[in-house]
Amino acid sequence: MPPAYEKNTPPSRIGWELPPFYWPFERGLIHPKAAELEERSIAWIDSFGLYPDATERAWGLATRSADFTSRIIPYGDVEPMLLFAEWNYWAFATDDWQDSESSATRTASVIDQGTRLFRTLEAPGSGLLPPGPHTAALEDLVTRTRAMLTPVQLRRFTEGVRDWVYGAAAQAAHADQGVMPGLNDFAAMRISVGGTRFLLTWCDAANGIEVPGEVLYSAPVQALTDAAGFIVACDNDLFSYNKDDHHEPREQNLLNVLAQHHGITPAEALPAAYALRDRTVTLFVRLREQLARDAGEQLGRYLVSLGHWIGGDTEYHNLAPRYASPRNRNALPVEGASYDITWSDTPSDPSVEPLPVPALAWWWQQLDDSAR
To answer: I want to staple 201 with a disulfide (CB 3.0 to 4.6 A). Which of 130, 157, 233, 263 is the partner?
Structure first.
């Protein structure tokens, strides 16, 4: 079923049919207990009354966070996956709150709420957040997270949340100034905006992956991690464009950034967006193969998990009602809506040269001579 929108809504600036996705990844992976995860997640949401009414609840469930979790972690342990899915539902609610803030106060609100969140994670019971369902749900998540994760995993998670809020604050600062960021500035912060390190902590915990710090934080592995985050961010911007195209000034989305950069329309920017994405996918494949040659067991499993994240994320976005039947064009989510995306065996841009984006070019420097 194609993307859904009600009659008499504004036309899409980019259309509803996305070009084929270059796809050197597995397709169709999903955890066998996906339905159980969704059922238990919804029961948790309802136990806290996270949404104020039936309409907000419908749009909250339209994020399909349990499906997202089940696709990016197709073989993980259920209990960490459940907690991660609930964190995602909570984070989507937070993201929508940020989107509702007026531009005049958005940066201050993000920073203020972010610092309160950090301290709540590090010192539960600090009493820094106002009472209510959202805070009660957060305190439950924090208590269970601290009981489940190892001290190292908890530190990674906390740093991941800091990075996520840092990205949100940088994005809000541009909005407050009323400017669209340049391509290099946008690319530099987009990986943080997407919550890359927040998310990967849970992928590792659910998969039982513990890469030694000196390996995980080495330059080649961090480059690969960033590249995966950027690919996912590009795909998110493609699928979410029609959800956010009613905002004025325009949303800080890859297509809008490229439209400004090249002096073209967002629709005309689609090939440039796919070129950035596909060249990064090519880099990801080459660098992952290089790292896999000498990888120990834990790093090898981490490399596989990154591929599952990219693949599962794209297939999730294709089917999630939040994107395929966006709220700015539908009174309620439409079950069965889909972008009906197609696949390509070859990249839209075959170049193997570094992207002309200084903030990202260092990834290509991690390739050894044989990979180059």
So the answer is: 157
Short-list 181, 327, 359, 323, CA closest to 256: 181
**216 CB contacts (<8 Å, ≥6 apart)?**
222, 299, 302
Whole-number percent of the chain with pLDDT over 70 = 96
The distance from CA 100 to its chain's CA centroid, rounded to whole angstroms, is 19
Which residues lie closer than 8 Å to 39 by C-beta, 6 or more apart? Answer: none
What CA–CA distance (Å, rounded) separates 310 from 25?
A: 8
Q: What is the pLDDT of residues 185-205, one digit of tens each?
A: 999 999 999 999 999 999 999
Q: How many Å apart are CA 34 and CA 264, to the nearest integer?
A: 42
Q: How do residues 284-297 score in pLDDT, each as one tens digit?
A: 999 999 999 999 99
The whole-angstrom separation of Cα 121 and Cα 141 is 9
Per DSSP, the residues of 10-34 read PPPSS-S-PPPEE--S--S---TTH
Side-chain-side CA neighbours of residue 114 (13 Å) = 22
* Exposure of 230 in the CB half-sphere (CA atoms within 13 A): 30
CB proximity list for 353: less than 8 A, separation 6 or greater: 279, 364
In the structure encoding, which two tokens stand for residue 107, read together? 């940066």
Coil vs helix vs strand at 202: helix
Phi then psi dihedrals of residue 27, to 5 deg: -125, 155
Give the H or E element holding residue 358: helix 358-361
pTM more than 0.90 = yes
